[in-house]
């Protein structure tokens, strides 16, 4: 597969903008395509907003000169110029198939095409695509410029080489590529997020808690531990000296109690109102932009602390630093 000097983006909304900032900061040129001409301004603004956080995150790491950003409303023009394409159009199977079908033949067959889809399986999207073996899912997390995880998933017709090359490209822009063994709807992380999301909707529906109380139950407790070790290792520690086996024995009976629901409740107007009003109360007049600034400053600070202990996303940052120093030594 090709060396990635130019990243092509198909769709430049929330996720496309995040990919652009991350790649540009890592010295990769970006050609971004969106059918809405007004997205040109929007992607430049998104990149300008993200760069200070990226600079703070990578302070002390020798970074290459920033890449160059260009924009087009013609996806084929983007496809002809790109060494790797990341698709970020809305989460609709027909929209994705149509948009990818339109650009595939404008690329070389050695150009990897990756989809940011949150839930579709790669086999569903690659059906009918020209050279489907180079198609993967590369599912990122918002904000893409600060969250290092990308789930790399292959479909029935994806080659191992495409999965490996996609993972290698993502590592080169500072990400943690998690190779998902088998395609399933929602990949891995969104399944976990959805399980929590379902319970939140039930709690709102049953009037058990407000959105604020639900968020308190996360951020002051189990959520605070998660960036360090994840759920499973934390549970092992909850078993004390008895470890994982003791933990499972202790909590096994509760698995039979009706603590949680499997099916989500119907999304009624009442739940939607509770959610919308609750989260607006929590924002307490702060704009999305102000909330994003708080989120991003904390994401940078947390990752720099984790790096000191070489755990979680801090480990990814340390690996990226090593790589950057090697590149400088070789130059
Ligand atoms: N928002 C998130 O938190 C998040 C996280 C991970 C993955 N994703 C996935 O990323 C993808 C994009 O999500 P988003 O939140 O950025 O959406 P978005 O609505 O913010 O942006 C989509 C963009 O695609 C453009 N578009 C639509 N059709 C197009 C076409 N045919 N060619 C080129 N551009 C086209 C639209 O004009 C728009 O600018 C979805 O598949 C979503 O599931 C989203």
From TrEMBL:
All residue ranges annotated as the 3-hydroxyacyl-CoA dehydrogenase C-terminal domain in the record: 186-252
- Key words, A-Z: Oxidoreductase
Q: Which GO terms describe its molecular function?
A: NAD+ binding; oxidoreductase activity, acting on the CH-OH group of donors, NAD or NADP as acceptor
GO BP annotations, alphabetical order = fatty acid metabolic process
Q: Lipoprotein as a keyword?
A: no
Q: Which residues form the 3-hydroxyacyl-CoA dehydrogenase NAD binding domain?
A: 7-181
Please indicate which superkingdom the organism of origin belongs to: Bacteria
Name under which the protein is recorded: Carnitine 3-dehydrogenase
Protein species of origin: Mesorhizobium tianshanense
Q: What is the lineage of its organism?
A: Bacteria, Pseudomonadati, Pseudomonadota, Alphaproteobacteria, Hyphomicrobiales
């Amino acid at each position: 597969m090709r060396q990635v000097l130019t990243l092509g983006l198909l769709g430049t909304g929330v996720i496309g903008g995040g990919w652009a900032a991350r790649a540009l900061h890592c010295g990769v040129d970006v050609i971004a395509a969106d059918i809405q001409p007004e997205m040109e301004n929007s992607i430049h603004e998104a990149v300008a907003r993200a760069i200070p956080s990226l600079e703070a995150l990578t302070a002390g790491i020798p970074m290459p000169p920033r890449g160059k950003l260009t924009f087009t409303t013609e996806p084929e023009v983007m496809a002809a110029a790109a060494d790797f394409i990341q698709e970020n159009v809305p989460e609709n199977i027909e929209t994705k198939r149509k948009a990818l079908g339109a650009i595939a033949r404008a690329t070389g067959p050695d150009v990897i095409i990756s989809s940011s889809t949150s839930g579709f399986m790669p086999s569903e999207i690659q059906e009918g695509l020209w050279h489907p073996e180079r198609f993967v899912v590369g599912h990122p997390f918002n904000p893409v410029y600060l969250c290092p995880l990308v789930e790399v998933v292959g479909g029935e017709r994806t080659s191992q080489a495409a999965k490996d090359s996609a993972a290698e490209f993502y590592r080169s822009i500072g990400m943690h590529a998690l190779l998902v063994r088998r395609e399933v709807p929602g990949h891995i992380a969104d399944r976990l997020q959805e399980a929590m999301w379902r319970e939140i909707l039930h709690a709102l529906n049953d009037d058990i808690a407000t959105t604020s109380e639900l968020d308190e139950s996360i951020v002051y407790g189990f959520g605070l531990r998660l960036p360090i070790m994840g759920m499973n290792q934390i549970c092992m520690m909850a078993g004390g000296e008895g470890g994982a086996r003791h933990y499972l024995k202790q909590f096994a009976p509760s698995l039979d109690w009706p603590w949680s629901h499997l099916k989500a409740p119907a999304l009624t107007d009442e739940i939607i109102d509770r959610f919308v009003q609750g989260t607006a109360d929590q924002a307490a007049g702060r704009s999305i932009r102000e909330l994003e600034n708080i989120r991003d400053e904390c994401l940078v600070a947390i990752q720099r602390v984790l790096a000191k202990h070489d755990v979680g996303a801090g480990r990814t940052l340390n690996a990226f630093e090593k790589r950057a120093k090697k590149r400088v030594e070789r130059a």
